[in-house]
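Recall the central idea of this unit: under ordinary conditions, the amino acid sequence of a chain determines the structure it adopts. In this exercise we apply that idea directly, starting from the sequence alone.
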Amino acid sequence: MKTKWGFALVVLAGILLSGCGYNTMQAQDERVKSAWSEVLNQYQRRADLIPNLVNTVKGYAAHEQQVLLGVTEARAKVGSIQATPELVNDPAAFAKFQAAQGQLTNALSRLLVVTENYPQLKADQNFRDLQAQLEGTENRITVARNRYIQAVRNYNTTVRSFPSNLTAKALGYKLKPNFSVENEAVISKPPTVDFAAPAKPAASAASSP
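Accordingly, the structure predicted from this sequence is:
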Protein backbone atom coordinates (compact mmCIF):
# COMPACT_ATOMS: atom_id res chain seq x y z
CA MET A 1 0.00 0.00 0.00
CA LYS A 2 2.79 2.43 0.93
CA THR A 3 4.53 1.68 -2.36
CA LYS A 4 1.36 2.49 -4.29
CA TRP A 5 0.88 5.75 -2.39
CA GLY A 6 4.52 6.69 -2.99
CA PHE A 7 4.20 6.02 -6.70
CA ALA A 8 0.98 8.03 -6.84
CA LEU A 9 2.66 11.00 -5.14
CA VAL A 10 5.56 10.86 -7.60
CA VAL A 11 3.16 10.83 -10.56
CA LEU A 12 1.13 13.69 -9.04
CA ALA A 13 4.27 15.74 -8.42
CA GLY A 14 5.35 15.18 -12.01
CA ILE A 15 1.99 16.34 -13.33
CA LEU A 16 2.01 19.42 -11.12
CA LEU A 17 5.57 20.37 -12.06
CA SER A 18 4.85 19.89 -15.75
CA GLY A 19 1.70 21.98 -15.53
CA CYS A 20 3.52 24.75 -13.67
CA GLY A 21 6.24 25.24 -16.26
CA TYR A 22 9.03 23.18 -14.69
CA ASN A 23 9.83 21.22 -17.84
CA THR A 24 9.61 24.35 -19.97
CA MET A 25 12.04 26.22 -17.72
CA GLN A 26 14.45 23.29 -17.78
CA ALA A 27 14.43 23.19 -21.58
CA GLN A 28 14.74 26.96 -21.91
CA ASP A 29 17.57 27.08 -19.39
CA GLU A 30 19.49 24.55 -21.48
CA ARG A 31 18.90 26.64 -24.61
CA VAL A 32 20.27 29.70 -22.82
CA LYS A 33 23.40 27.78 -21.82
CA SER A 34 23.89 26.53 -25.36
CA ALA A 35 23.41 30.01 -26.85
CA TRP A 36 25.81 31.52 -24.30
CA SER A 37 28.46 28.93 -25.13
CA GLU A 38 28.29 29.94 -28.79
CA VAL A 39 28.60 33.63 -27.88
CA LEU A 40 31.76 32.86 -25.93
CA ASN A 41 33.18 30.77 -28.78
CA GLN A 42 32.76 33.59 -31.27
CA TYR A 43 34.16 36.24 -28.92
CA GLN A 44 37.18 34.00 -28.30
CA ARG A 45 37.62 33.56 -32.04
CA ARG A 46 37.80 37.34 -32.37
CA ALA A 47 40.26 37.67 -29.50
CA ASP A 48 42.54 35.09 -31.15
CA LEU A 49 42.69 37.16 -34.35
CA ILE A 50 43.75 40.39 -32.67
CA PRO A 51 47.48 39.77 -31.98
CA ASN A 52 48.21 39.02 -35.64
CA LEU A 53 46.07 41.95 -36.75
CA VAL A 54 47.87 44.37 -34.43
CA ASN A 55 51.30 43.11 -35.48
CA THR A 56 50.45 43.44 -39.16
CA VAL A 57 49.18 47.00 -38.73
CA LYS A 58 52.24 47.86 -36.64
CA GLY A 59 54.46 46.88 -39.55
CA TYR A 60 53.01 49.68 -41.67
CA ALA A 61 51.73 52.15 -39.08
CA ALA A 62 54.05 51.81 -36.10
CA HIS A 63 53.49 55.42 -35.02
CA GLU A 64 49.73 54.78 -34.46
CA GLN A 65 50.65 53.77 -30.92
CA GLN A 66 47.54 55.10 -29.23
CA VAL A 67 45.16 53.13 -31.45
CA LEU A 68 47.25 49.96 -31.32
CA LEU A 69 47.60 50.20 -27.55
CA GLY A 70 43.85 50.74 -27.22
CA VAL A 71 43.12 47.46 -29.01
CA THR A 72 45.73 45.56 -27.00
CA GLU A 73 44.47 46.90 -23.67
CA ALA A 74 40.84 46.23 -24.57
CA ARG A 75 41.70 42.64 -25.47
CA ALA A 76 43.59 42.22 -22.18
CA LYS A 77 40.59 43.52 -20.25
CA VAL A 78 38.32 41.02 -21.96
CA GLY A 79 40.76 38.21 -21.18
CA SER A 80 40.83 39.14 -17.49
CA ILE A 81 37.12 38.31 -17.12
CA GLN A 82 36.27 34.71 -16.26
CA ALA A 83 33.52 34.09 -18.81
CA THR A 84 32.09 30.91 -17.29
CA PRO A 85 28.60 29.43 -17.87
CA GLU A 86 27.63 30.76 -14.42
CA LEU A 87 28.23 34.34 -15.60
CA VAL A 88 24.72 34.42 -17.12
CA ASN A 89 23.30 34.14 -13.60
CA ASP A 90 25.25 37.14 -12.28
CA PRO A 91 23.89 40.47 -13.63
CA ALA A 92 26.86 42.50 -12.35
CA ALA A 93 29.45 40.17 -13.87
CA PHE A 94 27.47 39.95 -17.10
CA ALA A 95 27.33 43.76 -17.38
CA LYS A 96 31.10 43.93 -16.84
CA PHE A 97 31.65 41.34 -19.56
CA GLN A 98 29.36 43.18 -21.97
CA ALA A 99 31.10 46.51 -21.31
CA ALA A 100 34.54 44.98 -21.93
CA GLN A 101 33.42 43.42 -25.22
CA GLY A 102 31.88 46.72 -26.27
CA GLN A 103 35.16 48.53 -25.61
CA LEU A 104 37.00 45.96 -27.72
CA THR A 105 34.50 46.39 -30.56
CA ASN A 106 35.01 50.16 -30.47
CA ALA A 107 38.80 49.81 -30.36
CA LEU A 108 38.76 47.51 -33.39
CA SER A 109 36.53 49.94 -35.28
CA ARG A 110 39.00 52.77 -34.62
CA LEU A 111 41.86 50.57 -35.80
CA LEU A 112 40.09 49.81 -39.09
CA VAL A 113 39.42 53.51 -39.63
CA VAL A 114 43.12 54.25 -39.16
CA THR A 115 44.12 51.64 -41.75
CA GLU A 116 42.31 53.63 -44.42
CA ASN A 117 45.23 56.06 -44.32
CA TYR A 118 47.77 53.38 -45.32
CA PRO A 119 47.31 52.11 -48.89
CA GLN A 120 50.29 49.76 -48.63
CA LEU A 121 48.78 48.15 -45.53
CA LYS A 122 45.41 47.73 -47.24
CA ALA A 123 47.16 46.05 -50.15
CA ASP A 124 48.99 43.58 -47.89
CA GLN A 125 47.54 40.09 -48.46
CA ASN A 126 47.98 39.01 -44.85
CA PHE A 127 46.12 42.08 -43.65
CA ARG A 128 43.33 41.50 -46.16
CA ASP A 129 42.99 37.88 -45.01
CA LEU A 130 42.80 39.02 -41.38
CA GLN A 131 40.17 41.60 -42.30
CA ALA A 132 38.08 38.92 -43.98
CA GLN A 133 38.34 36.66 -40.93
CA LEU A 134 37.46 39.54 -38.63
CA GLU A 135 34.42 40.47 -40.69
CA GLY A 136 33.20 36.86 -40.70
CA THR A 137 33.74 36.61 -36.95
CA GLU A 138 31.85 39.84 -36.27
CA ASN A 139 28.94 38.48 -38.29
CA ARG A 140 29.00 35.25 -36.27
CA ILE A 141 29.08 37.26 -33.05
CA THR A 142 25.98 39.15 -34.14
CA VAL A 143 24.13 35.92 -34.95
CA ALA A 144 25.20 34.27 -31.67
CA ARG A 145 24.18 37.33 -29.63
CA ASN A 146 20.77 37.44 -31.29
CA ARG A 147 20.17 33.77 -30.51
CA TYR A 148 21.19 34.32 -26.91
CA ILE A 149 18.94 37.38 -26.62
CA GLN A 150 15.95 35.40 -27.87
CA ALA A 151 16.70 32.40 -25.65
CA VAL A 152 16.92 34.62 -22.55
CA ARG A 153 13.73 36.47 -23.48
CA ASN A 154 11.83 33.18 -23.71
CA TYR A 155 13.26 31.93 -20.43
CA ASN A 156 12.61 35.19 -18.55
CA THR A 157 9.04 35.33 -19.87
CA THR A 158 8.39 31.87 -18.44
CA VAL A 159 9.97 32.77 -15.11
CA ARG A 160 7.77 35.90 -14.82
CA SER A 161 4.52 34.36 -16.06
CA PHE A 162 1.83 32.81 -13.85
CA PRO A 163 1.70 30.02 -12.74
CA SER A 164 5.25 29.12 -13.78
CA ASN A 165 6.55 32.02 -11.69
CA LEU A 166 5.45 30.11 -8.58
CA THR A 167 7.50 27.11 -9.66
CA ALA A 168 10.46 29.36 -10.46
CA LYS A 169 10.31 30.97 -7.03
CA ALA A 170 10.01 27.64 -5.25
CA LEU A 171 12.92 26.09 -7.14
CA GLY A 172 15.18 29.16 -7.24
CA TYR A 173 14.94 29.97 -10.95
CA LYS A 174 15.77 33.66 -11.40
CA LEU A 175 15.73 36.11 -14.29
CA LYS A 176 18.88 36.06 -16.41
CA PRO A 177 20.68 39.20 -17.62
CA ASN A 178 20.56 40.00 -21.31
CA PHE A 179 22.51 42.10 -23.77
CA SER A 180 21.19 45.63 -23.55
CA VAL A 181 22.58 48.73 -25.26
CA GLU A 182 21.12 52.10 -26.19
CA ASN A 183 21.25 51.21 -29.87
CA GLU A 184 21.71 47.47 -30.40
CA ALA A 185 21.58 47.83 -34.20
CA VAL A 186 24.53 50.23 -34.24
CA ILE A 187 26.68 48.45 -31.66
CA SER A 188 26.21 45.01 -33.20
CA LYS A 189 26.96 46.23 -36.73
CA PRO A 190 30.22 44.61 -37.90
CA PRO A 191 33.10 46.98 -38.61
CA THR A 192 33.16 48.06 -42.24
CA VAL A 193 35.77 46.24 -44.24
CA ASP A 194 36.80 47.87 -47.53
CA PHE A 195 38.41 45.46 -49.97
CA ALA A 196 38.70 48.00 -52.75
CA ALA A 197 42.16 48.33 -54.22
CA PRO A 198 44.06 51.31 -52.89
CA ALA A 199 43.41 54.43 -54.90
CA LYS A 200 46.17 55.48 -57.23
CA PRO A 201 47.64 58.91 -56.65
CA ALA A 202 46.15 61.51 -58.94
CA ALA A 203 48.35 62.47 -61.83
CA SER A 204 50.16 65.75 -61.38
CA ALA A 205 48.61 68.57 -63.26
CA ALA A 206 50.58 69.59 -66.32
CA SER A 207 52.66 72.65 -65.76
CA SER A 208 51.32 75.70 -67.44
CA PRO A 209 53.41 76.91 -70.31
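Helices lie at 2-19, 22-60, 65-79, 91-115, 119-123, 125-160, 164-171, 184-187.
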